[in-house]
Amino acid sequence: MQHAGKFLALVFVGSFIGGVVSGQTIGGITDRGAITQWLVLGPYNHTAGCNLPAECVMPATACDYMTDGAIIADEWEPTFGDSVASQCNGAARCTGWDCQFASTADPSINCGDPAAVPKVALYDSPEPRGYIDLNGFYSGIQVMGGNGSSGPPDNVMAYAWTYVYNHTGAPQEVYIGHNSDDSYRVLVNHVEAGAATRCAPDNPSPMNRITFFALRGPVS
Fold first, then answer.
1. What pLDDT, on a 0 to 100 scale, did the predictor assign at position 108?
2. CA distance readout (Å), 12 to 36, 72, 110, 165, 167
3. What angle do CA 44, 64, 203 make, to 5 degrees?
4. What whole-number distance in Å separates Cα of residue 49 and Cα of residue 62?
């Protein structure tokens, strides 16, 4: 089989930039190279607003907002539909999980069930530029183009994972660009590749650039 590049984005937001959105791009990468398909978990409440907490640095457990005491966020490789009983105000740094917004994104979540827990949903961006509009995803109000949706949920954070496979049969040097209007932390293959505290208006910010090598794995 081929090796996959595993990307985890930990996103903190002041203004978090329906039901499940139908995507337009087969395979999850547009002809511009934008990644459109992400697994998303959240939204989680916390006390840092749009900021990345000063102590949110390695090791992996220092910035874990979703752990159930066993799963480690920076090491987890979830699939669609996986769930985690996050210990908010306990082992996890979150102060709560906003089930109502989560159930808008994934109607299979029943917030009336006391056993309901955070569940990994699929976000498949309908935009050719691959814009990931989490305000629209969680509010159910999707705005195409421009700066996307705005409004609640506010002062929350979410996890987003994607898996990129190298099927070319040869090593590839790959350029990854990321932007966010608020704080973020990005991991590539479980290793932190970038993090920053920022609180900005609701619009795409200057691009952050990451270069890595996607090696050819053993073929089965």
1. 95
2. 20, 18, 25, 27, 33
3. 50
4. 18
pLDDT digits (tens, 9 = 90+) for 163-199: 888 778 888 777 777 777 778 888 888 888 877 777 7
Q: What is the mean pLDDT of the chain?
A: 77
Task: Please report the pLDDT score of residue 133 as a whole number.
Answer: 82
- How many CB atoms neighbour CB 89 within 10 A? 10
Cα gap 25→130, rounded to integer Å = 9
Residue 51: closest CA among 5, 11, 24:
11
In contact, 156 and 44? CB cutoff 8 Å: yes
Contacts for 102 with CB less than 8 Å, ≥ 6 apart: 42, 43, 109, 111, 118, 119, 121, 138
Write the CB contacts of 75 (distance below 8 Å, at least 6 apart in sequence).
60, 190
Q: Which two three-digit tokens encode residue 99?
A: 């089930």
Question: DSSP state, 217?
Answer: P
Q: Is the dihedral of CA 114, 120, 125, 126 positive or negative?
A: negative
Is 85:114 a contact under the CB 8 Å cutoff? no
How far is residue 44's CA from residue 26's CA, in Å, rounded to a whole number? Answer: 30
pLDDT in tens, 43-69: 999 888 888 776 676 555 568 899 999
DSSP state of 61: G
Mind listing the pLDDT tens digit for each residue in 4-20?
Answer: 555 655 554 443 333 34
Domain ranges of the chain: 14-164
